[in-house]
Design brief:
Blueprint: H1 3-12, E1 20-29, E2 41-42, E3 44-57, E4 68-73, E5 78-83, H2 93-107, E6 116-122, H3 132-147, H4 154-169, H5 176-183, E7 188-193, E8 199-203, E9 209-219, H6 226-244, H7 256-261, H8 268-292, H9 296-312, H10 319-330, E10 335-338, E11 344-352, H11 353-371, E12 376-379, E13 387-388
Parallel strand pairs: 4-6
Antiparallel strand pairs: 1-3, 1-13, 2-7, 3-6, 4-5, 7-8, 9-11, 9-12, 10-11
Helix pairs in contact: 2-3, 2-4, 3-4, 3-5, 4-5, 6-8, 8-9, 10-11
Bound molecules: alpha-D-galactopyranose.
Alpha-D-galactopyranose binds next to helix 5.
Amino acid sequence: MDLKALKKSFADHLFGTPDGIYTAPGRVNLIGEHTDYNGGFVLPGAIDKGITLAIKATGYNTIRVADRIHAFSMDYIEFSEMRLTQTNLPGQSWAKYIFGVVREFEKRGIEEVKGFDVVFYGDVPLGAGLSSSAALESAFAFALNDLYGYGFDKFELAKIGQATEHNYVGVKCGIMDQFASLFGKQGNLIRLDCRSLEHQYMPFNPVGYKLVLLDSRVKHELVNNPYNRRRESCEAAAAAIRKRHPEVEFLRDANFAMLEEVKTEISAEDYSRAKFVIGEVQRLLDVCDALNKDDYKTVGQKMYETHAGLSKLYEVSCEELDFLNDVAKKYGVTGSRIMGGGFGGCTINLVEESKYEAFIAGAVADYKTKFGIDAKVYDVVISDGARRIE
Ligand code: GLA
């Protein structure tokens, strides 16, 4: 899909000529997984794949019905019409995100979000752990804010996207994905403190290495929202520690000794989850130090440690992802781990250029033999965040 097809679809829906075209990307995360909702650090970067939309403001138009959203998804080939005053969620899963973003603007004092016509498409693989949903939220939040001049900064737009997940999708996510989608910068990772939202751009140009994603193409839809349950475990462990150490607001503030003190007071499951998070906060800091010294061996070693923790302690990996991690070791890949929320999706791999071809060919073949699935390969291109293109 391209901009020409987007504009053609816009015209075909009798929306005329768009007022603007906007895009917002998905993200990768080098290290720091499940640390964002624990007040910790993350190290994401926006990628060259995202959601692109053509939009026209209709709220000023007195001839047309001004209180309507008309939205068409080119990927799903589905149309949704929503009234701005409606309270019930729309039927299509993708339309819930648009609905949520609009409601969150209203909660922040925009008395009446005005109507718009929109057509959009995405090239972020769905269910691959690359945050297609954050790209969708950020694209709409950024576009509406710009088009109607609501005047929110990018911090607030990220919170609007996150609140959309919490209140209309039911995922109690952290802020990493929306932040990366809005604040992304070409060639840079973002070292983000998820408590204060202080952030630094870290140029990422590992000479002699490539960063590549292997998409397992499995997404295990599990019952009882396991993501939210992980978060609850972390909060329970932090609450137990806080009774003895009032300064501990989040697990980010705790250390292993504090966790040991409460070991018998919390469940074995909560203990394991917290143990992973406390280790992961430290690993991220170690990786930032290593990056400053161009020490990619250490970066890679920490990535493997993260995978082991996500698999054994946090239990968000699966057979397919563990297999891809083992395959990476077999081909001498410097660092590899499951990326994102888990339960499927991609591994992120830091691989020496000289080993790249053999690794990709070998991993894809081994995976096919074992699971009968063609893994997909995406080279990571760290790109800019949400923006207006036309
Ligand atoms: C998902 C969430 C993020 C973050 C990651 C895990 O992508 O949306 O907020 O918690 O999982 O690091």
